[in-house]
Amino acid sequence: MKIDPNYESTVLIVVPIHSKEKIKMKVAQIAPGYIEVPPLRGGAVEKHIIYLSEELKRLGLKVDIYARMGKNKQNKLKNTIYLSPPIKKSFLPIKIIDTFRYTFNLVKRLHHKKYDIIHLHGGIAGLIQSILIRKGRDKLVLTIHNPLIFSPNPIKRGLATLMELISASKADAIITVSKTMKELFKRKLKDKIVEYIPNGVHIRSNVEINQNYAKLALGLKGKKVILFVGRMALEKGIHILISALNQIIHQYRQHDVRLVLVGPPGKTFGGRPSKYYKFVMNLIRKYNLNNFVIYLGNVSEKTLRLTYVACDIFVLPSISDAMPMTLLEAMAHGKPVISTWVGGIPDFIEHSKTGILVPPNDPSTLANAIQNILTKKTLAETFSRNAVTEIEEKYSWKKVAIKIYKLYSTLTK
Predict the structure, then answer these.
(1) Helix 154-170 crosses helix 123-132 at what angle (to 10 degrees)?
(2) Does 109 score more than 90 pLDDT?
(3) Confidence band for 6, pLDDT divided at 50, 70 and 90
(4) What is the structure's pLDDT at 112?
(5) How far apart are CA 339 and CA 352, in angstroms?
(6) Mean pLDDT score, 184-200
(7) pLDDT of residue 203
(8) Phi, psi (deg, nearest 5) at residue 272
(9) What is the pLDDT of residue 117?
(10) Residue spans of alpha helices (H) in 27-178
(11) 188: helix, strand or coil
């Protein structure tokens, strides 16, 4: 198989060329089926599948995406096979039943089409798919995205790890999105190929949207903006950020600071408001921060980008996490980032170089870190430059796709 030599000048992949290899390597990317492809809101795993598939195609592979039908029939991608049942709001037992139905339909389709690689993406859907998909000559690859593997709750952590271990036992190769996760699965599955390949991110130019315009568009002219993007879930530590903001406003007296919260009010996109959401809203009222916090909820991709451009700092105070895409997106937008020493986050944020890491559940240390960046322009600019360089060197989708392509090639020799 030939690769465009101009595709990635810094990486050389030598692949033997035989007459039979004129046929492209065929890959099936399997979406979990909880969120539409392409996603209207959120959907980190679904975006991962889309962007990875685009880059693999540029490398010369034939890639099909399998996904469930969405509500919007006009919102479809090329080279994507949509299967029933359609995605709909439902309780967990119904979601699991629908995942089984989707997987049965998936198995029927895969039986009639031959692929060199079938690539699953973990979670409950990945577990069901790994068990029901019968391997022939197809090689099964599993990417584990599951942040619950790092949960402080031992029951959630144990169940998530067990679920992914069962799925991984069925696969020919396992990809983890954090180094810590790789070490865990390598210990448990010594006879398996386990590779650390991080998430990628699109590197976008902000030339067409400057920060002042973005702030004006969001009604934040002249304000110092702290941004959080994510689900309203306990593991994201939003209550810690609210407590830190209370100190910034009332102790440090930074009255021109505004906190923008972006994300669904529930634990999942499209879900009903969670008890945790209500707790966070009550905490904002308790600290008299109503005038300092703007909750935008679910937003379009255009508005999401505006918030990234507008912010002065991006903060993700996670109690547990794997490799959150939001941190990569903020870094790609050249923003100073603050997060915590948990899960896979220290794998890609180098403390005091590409951002600041603080202990989880520590609002005072978090407030101090935010205050440092808000008041030290040179420090903020250094973090911004280093973050963009780090993204360009390690986390472009081109580089991620090349690593995954090399893994595919190893399996299909």
Answers:
(1) 30
(2) yes
(3) very low
(4) 86
(5) 12
(6) 95
(7) 76
(8) -75, 155
(9) 97
(10) 44-58, 92-112, 123-132, 154-170
(11) helix
- What is the average per-residue pLDDT within 272-280? 92
Dihedral through CA 277, CA 280, CA 281, CA 284, nearest 10?
A: -170
- The torsion angle over the Cα atoms of residues 206, 292, 360 and 400, rounded to 10 degrees, is -20
State the average pLDDT over residues 165-188.
95
* Predicted confidence (pLDDT) per residue in 7-44, tens digit: 443 333 444 444 344 568 999 999 999 889 998 777 88
Position 251, amino acid? Q
Q: Classify the C-alpha dihedral 363-349-227-277 as positive or negative.
A: negative
* Percent helix, strand and coil across the chain, each to the nearest 5: 45, 15, 40
- Amino acid identity for residue 59 in this structure: L
Residues 6+ apart with CB under 8 A from 56: 27, 63, 401, 404, 405
**Is omega for the bond preceding 38 within 30 degrees of 0, making it cis?**
yes
Judge whether 227 and 245 are in contact, CB under 8 Å. Answer: no
Contact 341, 358 (CB under 8 A): yes
Beta bridge partners of 313: 226
| Secondary structure element (H or E) that encloses residue 381, with its range | helix 377-394
Task: Report pLDDT for 90.
Answer: 75
What whole-number distance in Å separates Cα of residue 342 and Cα of residue 347?
Answer: 10
Taking each helix axis from N to C end, the angle separating 275-286 and 238-250, rounded to the nearest 10 degrees, works out to 10
pLDDT of 383-410, one tens digit each? 999 999 999 999 999 999 999 999 999 9
Mean pLDDT for 327-344 is: 95
Strand order in the sheet with 193-196: 80-83, 62-68, 26-30, 117-120, 139-144, 173-176, 193-196
Amino acid sitting at position 14: V
How many CB atoms lie under 10 A from the CB of residue 25? 20
Distance in angstroms (rounded) separating the CA atoms of residues 211 and 222: 11
